[in-house]
């Protein structure tokens, strides 16, 4: 595992990574038989997906599928879908944070910093939606703050 990680760190910004990645991932085959092998694989996949600008998640997934067996390839395909869904949710959370910030700026500008410091720590879509909706009818800031735990 250390060798895989060191090679990833070595080549992460190298233009030749596309050619090196299948070789690096093939080292994972031996680790895949261990219980934590899939966890290693997921960590590497997430690292690559979040670090590489020149690669799409789809390209990374295809390289993984090519370098590993069908079983692990299926796992990566499922993981890629999960990451795509997580990205959608994270986008919605960011959008709600921005909407709440705009609402507080317009309605309760003196409390913007206090509210947003608390809101930025909330990632539950339901809670954020409730806060956003309450801004429309809130008469004072305490009504908004009561929703932020």
Structural description of this entry:
- Helices cover 77% and strands 0% of the residues.
- By secondary structure, it is mainly α.
Question: Keyphrases for this structure?
Answer:
0% strand, 149 residues, single chain, mainly alpha
Number of extended strands: 0
Order of helices and strands: HHHHHHHHH
Beta-strand level of the residues, as a percent range? under 5%
Net shape: elongated
Average of pLDDT: 84
Distance between the termini: 41 Å
SS-derived structural category: mainly alpha
Classify the helix fraction into a percent range: over 70%
Main sheet overview: none
* Uncertain spans: none
Radius of gyration over all CA atoms, rounded: 21 Å
Number of DSSP helical runs: 9
Write the layout of secondary structure elements.
Elements: H1 2-11, H2 17-26, H3 28-32, H4 37-51, H5 57-67, H6 70-107, H7 112-119, H8 125-137, H9 141-145
Helix pairs in contact: 1-2, 2-5, 4-6, 5-6, 6-7, 6-8
Question: How would you sum up this structure in a few lines?
Answer:
77% of the residues lie in helices and 0% in strands. The chain has helices at residues 2-11, 17-26, 28-32, 37-51, 57-67, 70-107, 112-119, 125-137, 141-145.
